[in-house]
Every structure is written in structure tokens, then in C-alpha cells.
Amino acid sequence: DGAIKFWDGEEKVLADGITLLRCGGHFPGGTIMHWRDGAEGRGALLTGDILQVTPDGMVSFMFSYPNQIPLPARAVELIGEKVKPLRYERIYGAWWERVIASDAQEVVRRSVARYLGLTEIEAGRAIAPTKGTHGYKDKKNPSEENERENA
Nearest to residue 17, comparing CAs of 51, 45, 48, 47? Predict the structure, then answer.
């Protein structure tokens, strides 16, 4: 079909002010569209589920939405880097009601930071609970534990 045009590379200009950007994500060819004149001239992204607009008004990133498998942190960093230089006020997500109507650049910045912060927790690099909280016991010093139990 002549209407289907395959393309390679990181960007593809479709028309003046309308550009496809390969961001990757849950598949290597994951693509978003930057519409320079969208949102009354303030710029818009059409992201599908590459940057998924979430019910809390942020965006999130998944490797598999049906199976709830998160995207690796480095992939999220790369998506954040890809959209950082763009000018946009609005994001249109994959579903009709999933729109970030204003301040979308800041929302993406905060969303990437939130996601990366959560992956730090998942990787065990977050601060561990302190002794005496939530049933935590100091396993490094069993003699101290024995002294408390025998007192």
C-alpha cells in the first residue's frame, strides 16, 4: 500500500512542525509524535503508551502493560532525554480521557524522577528500616539480640 511508509533512524519529519521520534520503550521502534503547533501553538506530544498518561495526572512507563512488567530504569532515562529538548505544553495519551492539558514538560520531568526513585527502592538501594521499626531485628549483632532476649 502506497500510504504506508517505512522509515529508519531516530526522527522522521512528516510535515513542517510534525515529527516522529523513536523513543523505544516496550519495543525498540516505540514512537511518539511531536506536534510543534499543537495546544494552541504551545506544542503537544502524542505518546500512545510510550509515555502512558496515568489517572494521577503523571506519566508512567511499562515493558508490558498486560503483565505489569516495568520498563528498565535506563530505558526510562533515555525516553526522558529524548523528549527533554522538545517544547510542549500538552500530552495526548493512548486513551481519549488520558490527556495532560498543561505543564506537560514539568509533569514528564517529575514522572521520570518518580519512576527512577521507585526503581532505586526496588533495586534495594533505598534506606533500610532502622533497628526497632516494623519488626526489624539487627541480624549483624546476634549477641546483642541474645542479651535483650535473656534480660
Answer: 45
Question: Which cell numbers hold the place of 74?
Answer: 535506563
HEC string for the chain? CCCCCCCCCCEEEEECCEEEEECCCCCCCCEEEEECCHHHHCCEEEEECCCEECCCCCEECEEECCCCEECCHHHHHHHHHHHCCCCCCEEEECCCCCEECCCHHHHHHHHHHHHHHHHHHHCCCCCCCCCCCCCCCCCCCHHHHHHHHHC
> What confidence tier does 140 reach under pLDDT thresholds 50, 70, 90?
very low
Model-level pTM?
Answer: 0.76
